[in-house]
Specification:
This protein is α+β, with helices and mostly antiparallel strands. The protein has helices at about 5-10, 15-25, 30-35, 40-55, 110-120, 165-175, 185-190, 225-240, 245-250, 255-270, 270-275, 275-300, 310-325, 335-345, 355-360, 365-375; strands spanning about 70-75, 75, 85-90, 100-105, 125-130, 150, 160-165, 195, 200-205. The protein has a 5-stranded mixed sheet with strand order 3-5-4-6-7, covered by helices on one side. A two-stranded antiparallel sheet has the order 1-2.
């Protein structure tokens, strides 16, 4: 099938614009069909564009990074978006006073990180599952990656938007540490540095996104030492810069594993509820194919070993060694933000072959199960575990 006809067919499924944009960006030319090169190269680059566009499906938030944390986009006030809530999480012991909504993909590792934090600390929150192909639930936002957390009753517009999983966790942890400081002021402590990337695209970075704000809390009331805080920041950064990059090449290592992963994503993400039957099947099979191809690309980009399982095993062994045999968690007797981050990322692939092999070939299982128990039972709300 000729390339233009191929794209006209894809437009029927509503993904033409995304693929065309990625192919344009990848090739660096507007006249994509006549400037890519030989037919062989043309086919490869078209396939890669499809893979990039499908990367947001299932575990696709892997490449998510920090972007602007504001309810203003290009100087335009944004009204509070209204979408059907996918599910409500209500914890009777929640005394934070915050009304939170998370926009997410159920199996995005960055979304899983944030949910692990929320569940461990016993936050009540609403979940809005984002359609990973059309992203209609994010049309209101200039920032279109997940997770996004909205906090109602805060800020000039009646709500605050907080982006980037690590920023979200740091802001909420800072709030738990110092509830006397207004929430919107805490958010303002994490301003983005805006730069211009390739082709004029704006890039947003949060240089202090791993820092916790303790306000005027006396040092004697802070349960962690400066050394422990530094170690926590180090491993949180390791999760974002290293561990997450082990996932896609492993989860999508073979066509059968990729298909198995997408069927798992469909189940836990309740795609039958959010997609039509045709859309769900289309996402599963096209997504699995695209991510299998993209997994090969990411394997070389992040220099994984020839047997990508070994790289994943090595990362898990590195973490287990850092936790040590004398501690239950990196945080000691309770999970800290590094524990919750590693757990969230691994939890995103819990139903996949790669995860089962991790348990069989490393000693991470006992730590993982302890952390899972702490998260599922909201142990952060227990008086004995509060900081």
């Amino acid at each position: 099938m000729a390339a233009p006809m191929f794209f006209r067919r894809l437009q029927t499924f509503g993904i033409y614009r995304s693929i065309f944009k990625n192919l344009t960006n990848y090739s660096g030319k507007r006249n994509v069909f006549h400037n890519i090169g030989t037919p062989d190269k043309r086919r490869k680059k078209i396939i890669l564009a499809i893979a990039i566009s499908a990367a947001s499906i299932g575990a696709g938030g892997v490449v998510a990074r920090a972007l602007k944390m504001s309810v203003k986009a290009a100087g335009v006030e944004v009204e509070r978006p209204k979408h059907k809530v996918s599910r409500e999480i209500r914890i009777p012991t929640d005394d934070t006073g915050l009304k939170l909504t998370i926009y997410q993909y159920q199996t995005c590792p960055f979304s899983c990180k944030v949910r692990a934090f929320l569940d461990y600390h016993g936050f009540s929150y609403d979940v809005i599952e984002v359609n990973s192909v059309w992203k209609t639930q994010l049309k209101w936002s200039a920032y279109t990656k997940v997770p996004i957390v909205l906090c109602d009753g805060q800020g000039e517009n009646g709500f605050l938007q907080v982006n980037d999983s690590s920023v979200i966790m740091s802001v909420l942890q800072s709030y738990l540490e110092d509830k006397n400081t207004p929430f919107d002021k805490l958010v303002s402590f994490y301003p983005p540095i805006i730069s211009e990337g390739k082709r004029g695209k704006k890039v947003y970075e949060f240089p202090n996104k791993y820092n916790i704000m303790y306000g005027e809390k006396p040092a004697v009331q802070i349960s962690t030492t400066t050394k422990q805080q530094k170690e926590e920041r180090k491993w949180r950064r390791w999760v974002d810069d290293h561990l997450v990059h082990m996932l896609s090449p492993n989860v999508y290592r073979t066509p059968s594993e990729a298909l198995q992963a997408f069927r798992y994503f469909s189940k836990v993400g309740e795609w039958e509820t959010h997609f039509s039957n045709f859309e769900r099947i289309f996402v599963i099979y096209v997504g699995a194919t695209a991510m299998y191809i993209l997994g090969k690309f990411l394997k070389h980009r992040y220099e994984l070993k020839e047997n990508v399982r070994e790289s994943l095993f090595d990362a898990c062994k590195e973490w287990t060694k850092a936790v040590g045999k004398s501690h239950e968690f990196m945080g000691g007797k309770q999970p800290n933000l590094a524990d919750l981050s590693v757990y969230g990322v691994l939890n995103s692939i819990e139903g996949c072959d790669a995860f089962n092999e991790v348990l069989q070939n490393t000693n991470i299982g006992p730590w993982y199960n302890r952390t899972k128990l702490a998260v599922d039972n909201h142990m952060g709300t227990h008086p004995a575990h509060k900081l």
